[in-house]
Amino acid sequence: HLCPLGIAANVIQAAFCRLDTVLVMFGFLYYTYSNMKDADDITGCTAILESLEKRWLKMDQEVFIAAVILNPVYQLKPFSRIQYLNVASIIGLMTCLYICFEQKPPPDKFIMDLKDYLAKVKSFNNIDLMVNSEMNTAENENQILDPLTILMTYGFPGHPDMPFIAFAKHILSISANSASCECLFSLLRNLLTKLQNHLDLKTLTNLAEAKMHIHNEHLQSGKAKS
Question: Second label for 166, Cα 20 to 30 Å away, from 41, 79, 116, 150?
Fold first, then answer.
């Protein structure tokens, strides 16, 4: 019973854990424990499944679902075909979240690009090719695939992202745990020593951000422990 929980805990408690990763792990756990049919497993599995359901009901479900859909690797693949997740419902979901974050309705271009993204047409007609390319690159470099690298290919260097891509990057940049914050505060405490306290706030902040960036790069490449 503990092995799947251990896998999920290691993933979710990493230095940075995206929202889509959390929901995929929830699905992994629910599927795993739903398929344990031995009589000795029933009591423990039932308790775990009930706990998962309770936690899911307490979560902001919409933003987790949106994160999975906005990850080009997943899109709608992990979900069943239900009315709640047809194109019209997804547009409504993303529109509500956009208003929540931006405090204004999304532009028409946002809706158009969202439809194209879901249908894999026009600007996104090659998205499967880009996903496979980035997956192969990550595998060859022994790194974890970052969906943001895929989304970045749909922009122009030095120019603002189109609204849909900017929104997707925003959602996929949210950390679902406090590990990143705790790590940052730990770095700040280490920097605020008697030897370094003569530095101004901006310099200290830049040092902390640089160290966090290096730490995250090492985590991505497997050179550091999470």
Answer: 79
